[in-house]
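Budget justification note: compute hours in this period were largely spent on complex prediction jobs such as the one shown. Inputs:
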Amino acid sequence: MNRLRLILLMGLCIFIALLSIGYITVGMDDNTSDEPVVTTDAEADKKPVTNPSGNDVAATTASTEPTEETTVEKTTAPKEEITVSDYEYAYAGFNPSVAAVSEENWNLLLVNRNYILPDGFTVKTTPVKGGGQSLDYRVAEHYNDMVTAAETDGISLIPVSGYRSVERQRTNFERKINYYKGLGYSKAEATRLASQIVLMPSTSEHNAGLAMDFGTNGNYTLDENFAKTDAFRWLSENAADYGFILRYPEDAQDITMVTYEPWHWRYVGTKVAKEIKASGVTLEEYLGME
Ligand SMILES: [Zn+2]
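Corresponding output:
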């Protein structure tokens, strides 16, 4: 019986041991079966997280937009971008040269979409007659003489817009870009559209302090109706005697790249103004830089 008990006890131990192992094994199996579930969940989680979570989409969108713009820059700009590769609006296809600023021929400075004022351009300005506006100090005296002469003839010439800083021009231009971006246009397209309304910074004669936009009694809005005023007629007849020209004549848009602006008068000096008036050419043509 002792032997039988011993065998039973051993059998019980073996049974318990097997049961333990079996239990552990079952436990491990459970864990193992859980693990794949967890792993599957993790993968399942990762997949949804990776794809629809927006991480990839956002990354794709983020990398698509600049890529598109970069592509635009790289495909259209580099060919023409040799002269001013770092021009701030080159991404929109604008590739102007830097205007030649000279102390000697300051009055003949050509500023337009093709020739921009150099970085850091500064001009000494002084307030002019009529209040609220200033011009290049070398222009002011001629301007004041002209306005005084007009007054003597009973003509009111009201300064609406003279010198305007490059920074202010940039603010105006960027505001316009943002307006078009708000309508859904791409940055490059919004910039091109803005440039049709507001001149880009450093491309306006106002940035150089060489031009004045005039109003007159009853017309301050800088529109084509100014051409019908006595003030315009007076300027057309007399401005050259004081060194000013009608800078953006009618039907000269192909050359000046600016629409007809009867209100915008630019100082070039008496001699040149008289020659330009007599010949009827634009400043670009006069300088041979059209
Ligand atoms: Zn103007």
